[in-house]
Amino acid sequence: MLSNLLNFVENTARHQVPLMTMIVLVLMSVPPLYLPHYGGIAINLSLIGLFYWSVYKPEFLHPVTTFLVGLFYDFLAGTPAGMFALIFLVARVLLGIYSKRLRGTTFLPLWVGFSLVVFGTSFVGWLACSLWYGELLDLVSVLFHSILTVALFPFGAALLIWISRKVYRVS
Amino acid sequence: MKINSKFKHGSRLIRLSFPLRAMVHKSLIFILVSAAISFMVLDKNGSATIEKTSVVIADIFSPILDFISRPAASINQVLQDLDNLSQLHKDNSVLRAENKRLNDWKMIARDLRAQNKALKTLLGYTGDLPPSQITARVIGDAAGPFVRTLIINVGTDRGIKKGNAVISGEGLIGRVIAAGKNSARILLITDINSRVPVLVESSRDRAILTGTNAGQPKLLFLPASADLTEGDRVVTSGHGGVLPAGLPVGTILNAGDGNVLISTFARLDRLEYVRVVVRDKIISPDLN
Predict the structure, then answer these.
(1) Cβ B147–A137 below 8 Å, yes or no?
(2) How far is CA B36 from CA A19, A99, B148, B273, in A?
(3) Domain ranges in chain A?
């Protein structure tokens, strides 16, 4: 009975790894870096987690989990509540449809796929915020924000691959 | 035969469950999308519950954010110290000259202070109580191009209240828009939602300073007859009673046609420590 309980705990913990990593990535995105002009283009690391787990472990990243992480990001970052919850949810659903195709590719097409997700979500965020405030936001900042997030994908993905190998024992 | 019929029955069940699961999945997505839109509508209408939830979440995670932000803060301090060391000789000369100039001003300021005190006594003038200041560390700066807010590591337990002005060593940086027990959120003057009543020091023209979420904030509602010069100082006017008057904001960047942009005194992209000006809001008298 003890071994059954331990197995249950271990399986439950494995299921929560995507959620935990995304929460950690949100927390790592929030503190300031004190770089000149960084605040205006601060990156959202949780997009890397959202992309990776949606492609490789979609069964462990439920839409409800994605929604809650997006809402958590909204409350911490100060963006309109529900905005990134909606953006993350839409991204998750679209990635869920294309995940099989992306899973079988090499790193470069994966990076391109991530770029499309980042630029897409940033544009939607820009549009939503512009409608929210009734005034067009600066698109250049959004562009630099997207470029910076895309540039960090290899590092974020390397970390998540390492975690995946340790937790799920995949090659 | 029994086994075959069991398989037949099982596969029928499996065939039925796939469309059902797809329908449940689509309904769930629809519910979550509706929930997200509902949150946005509630937030737009200024829901107190949303604000409270945001404050509670910032409060719960502020110790973690404080811890995570320390390595970057330490590296920033070392780099600043190295930068200061390299400029030591040059800064020394500049500071000596400024010290001499300020010593001359000190004598003038003493005379003016004595005159001011005498005139106040003569007129029976009742001034504002001097505000107190609380130093805080910036532990959050996340939203990038969408929102320009900061999270600091002090809250209502140190006397911080919604509406308090926040300054750096150089000038105004924003105001508190939400305060939890041990953290608070600041809306920067460069945020698109920010509205600060200001006046141009030289001409005494009043305006509203508003942010653009990028670069420099601008002045709105300037009088048509405003006579502005590049380099004119802009300070808070104190109108509305929320922010104290006289807090330095910046200087005018361009005084021509079109948007009047302000170059802020405070370096908003490298804030590590800020000061919250704690002062009670002045409430307008009831005219009934």
Answers:
(1) no
(2) 19, 24, 22, 35
(3) 2-26+44-168
Which CATH number does the domain housing residue B147 bear?
A: 2.40.10.340
Instruction: Look at residue B58 and tell me if it is in a domain.
Output: yes
What is the pLDDT tens value at each position of chain B, 288 positions in all? Answer: 444 444 444 455 555 577 787 888 888 999 999 999 999 999 988 888 999 999 999 999 999 999 998 888 888 888 888 888 888 888 888 888 889 889 888 988 998 998 888 888 888 877 666 678 999 999 998 768 888 999 999 999 999 999 999 999 889 999 999 999 999 999 999 999 999 999 998 889 999 999 988 778 999 998 888 888 888 999 999 888 778 888 999 999 886 667 889 999 998 888 889 999 987 655 556 554
Domain at B215, CATH number: 2.40.10.350
Both B144 and B56 in one domain: the answer is yes
Q: Does B133 touch chain A (CB under 8 A)?
A: no
Q: What is the pLDDT, as a whole number, of residue A18?
A: 93
B215 touching chain A per CB within 8 A: yes
- Within an 8 Å CB–CB cutoff, is residue B185 touching chain A? yes
Q: Are A111 and A119 in contact (CB under 8 A)?
A: no
Please say whether the beta carbons of B166 and B277 come within 8 A: yes
The whole model's pTM is what? 0.83
Any alpha helices (H) in chain B, and if so which ranges? Answer: 2-44, 48-86, 88-123
Distance CA B146, CA B191 (A): 9
Cross-chain Cβ contact B36/A133 below 8 Å: no
Contacts of B120 (CB under 8 A, 6+ apart): B127
The minimal CB distance from A138 to the residues B28, B151, B212 is found for B212
Same domain, B107 and B150: yes
Distance from CA of A106 to the nearest CA of B (A): 30
**Based on the domain organization, do B69 and B99 belong to the same domain?**
yes
Based on the domain organization, do B96 and B224 belong to the same domain? Answer: no
B72 and A33: CB-CB below 8 Å? yes
Least CB–CB distance from B145: residue in A29, A41, A82: A41
CA dist B145 and B149 (Å) reads 10
The pLDDT tens digits for A85-95 are: 999 999 999 89
Task: Give me the residue from A27, A89, A138 closest to B214, CB to CB.
Answer: A138
The helix (H) or strand (E) run that includes residue A33 is: none
- Please name the member of A34, A76, A85 whose beta carbon is closest to the beta carbon of B72: A34
Is residue B2 a part of any domain in this protein?
no
Q: Which residue range is the domain that position B240 belongs to?
A: 195-266
